[in-house]
Amino acid sequence: MATNGINLTPGMGEIIQLNVGGTRFSTSRQTLMWIPDSFFSSLLSGRISTLRDETGAIFIDRDPTAFAPILNFLRTKELDLRGVNISVLRHEAEFYGITPLVRRLLLCEELDRSSCGSVLFHGYLPPPAIPARKLGPASAAHGPSSDERSGPNGAEGFTRVGPPPHPSLSGSPGADENHKLGPVVDPRKVLIIAGHHNWIVAAYAHYVICYRIKESSGWQQVFSSPYLDWTIERIALNAKVVGGPHGDKDKMVAAASESNIILWSIQDGGNGNEIGVFSLGVPVDDLFFIGNQLVATSHTGKVGVWNAVTQHWQVQDVVPITSCDTAGSFLLLGCNNGSIYYIDMQKFPLRMKDNDLLVTELYHDPSNDAITALSVYLTPKTSVSGNWIEIAYGTSSGAVRVIVQHPETVGSGPQLFRRSLCTGAP
C-alpha cells in the first residue's frame, strides 16, 4: 500500500520516497527522524507543508549531489568527504538542521582554513620598544652623528650602515664623521632571527630581544640588550649552557658587526650581563655556538673561540676558509687549498707547545680544488659502535664528492663514497 509518498511495508516500517532536485532517493522514516528538530522531523510530522511530484514522492528543491552524503550520514553516522566541497556540504547540512554533521564539518573546515599564519601559527610577538641610546659627553655636545641624521634619502629615526665608529660598542663618546655612508636601515625592522630550545632571539639594527616560551604563560620577552652604536650583522643563541658561571641555567646571546663581537649571559629571571667584547681582527662571516663554545669564523682564515668554562677568547690563524659546518662537537672547515680540517670542541683542545687550537686535517681533495660547500652528518653514537661521519662537499671546479668514515676505519681517514662532476650548464 502506498500513501502520499510513504510506503508501508509489514515488518519493515515506513519507506519514504524523496525527490531531491530531480534525483530520487528511498529511505526509512527512522533514518530521517533520529535527529530531533531537524528539517525531516518537521516535514514528516506535518509542521512543514510538502510538495509532491507526479509519483507522489516528497519533492525537496535542493542540491542532490550534496544530499547524498547527508543521507549517508543519517544512515551510518559516518562522514565520507571524498569528492565533496566541505563548505557546500556544511551549508546544506545547516539547511536540513543536521546538527551533529554541522559540528563535524566545522572541525574539518578549521583544519583547512589558514588563520593568522595557517594551522602552524603559534603566537604573535608585538614590536618592542627601542632601547634608549646612552650618549657620552662628546656625543651630546656634537649632536647626532652622520649615522643617525635623516638625509634626503632617509627618514627620521633611520640609520645608515657603516663600520663601527669607535671600539666601544654601546654609548660611544664620539663618531667618525668622515666614514663612508651605507644603505639606510630601519631600526624597527627585524634583520635576523634565531632559535634554540624554547628561546628565540630577534636582531634589529641596533639591539637584540630574547623571548622564551612556557606552557603556562606562552611567549614572553625576557631580555633586551642596550642600544648598540653599530648595525648588527650576525647573531647566535645558546639556550642550554652546561657548566657556565651561574650553573646550568645560563643562556648566552652573541651579536657581531664587522670584526667585533659582544656576548651577553642571561639568567632565567631575565637579568643579563655583558660578558665581554671580542675582536676577530677581520670581518665575521659566521657566528654560532658549539656546546659551550662561541665560534666566529672569517673567510680570510681566522677562527675565534670563546669557552664558557675557561672564560677565554682565542683567535687562531688557519688557511682561508671557503665553507664550514658543524656536527656534534666538531667544527669542520673547508678551505681554499682543497683540505677539510676539523676542531673537536668537546674538550677545547690546545696544543701543549703554544696553546694554539688543535686543528687537524681530515681529508684533502684529490684535485686540490677549493672546498666551496660543505655538509656533515654525524650518526648517533651507540654502545655497539661509534659514530659514522658522512661528508658531502662541493668544489670550485663543480665536483661533488661524498666521503664516509666508519668507526672501524678511524685511523685511515674518510673514504670516497661517491663522486659527480658538472661538466656544463643545463
From TrEMBL:
<dbReference type="InterPro" id="IPR003131">
    <property type="entry name" value="T1-type_BTB"/>
</dbReference>
<dbReference type="InterPro" id="IPR000210">
    <property type="entry name" value="BTB/POZ_dom"/>
</dbReference>
<dbReference type="Pfam" id="PF02214">
    <property type="entry name" value="BTB_2"/>
</dbReference>
<keyword id="KW-0597">Phosphoprotein</keyword>
<protein>
    <recommendedName>
        <fullName>BTB domain-containing protein</fullName>
    </recommendedName>
</protein>
<keyword id="KW-0853">WD repeat</keyword>
<keyword id="KW-0677">Repeat</keyword>
<dbReference type="InterPro" id="IPR015943">
    <property type="entry name" value="WD40/YVTN_repeat-like_dom_sf"/>
</dbReference>
<dbReference type="InterPro" id="IPR011333">
    <property type="entry name" value="SKP1/BTB/POZ_sf"/>
</dbReference>
<feature type="region of interest" description="Disordered">
    <location>
        <begin position="135"/>
        <end position="180"/>
    </location>
</feature>
<feature type="domain" description="BTB">
    <location>
        <begin position="14"/>
        <end position="83"/>
    </location>
</feature>
<dbReference type="InterPro" id="IPR047825">
    <property type="entry name" value="SHKBP1_KCTD3_BTB_POZ"/>
</dbReference>
<comment type="similarity">
    <text>Belongs to the KCTD3 family.</text>
</comment>
<dbReference type="GO" id="GO:0051260">
    <property type="term" value="P:protein homooligomerization"/>
</dbReference>
<dbReference type="InterPro" id="IPR036322">
    <property type="entry name" value="WD40_repeat_dom_sf"/>
</dbReference>
<dbReference type="InterPro" id="IPR047876">
    <property type="entry name" value="SHKBP1/KCTD3"/>
</dbReference>
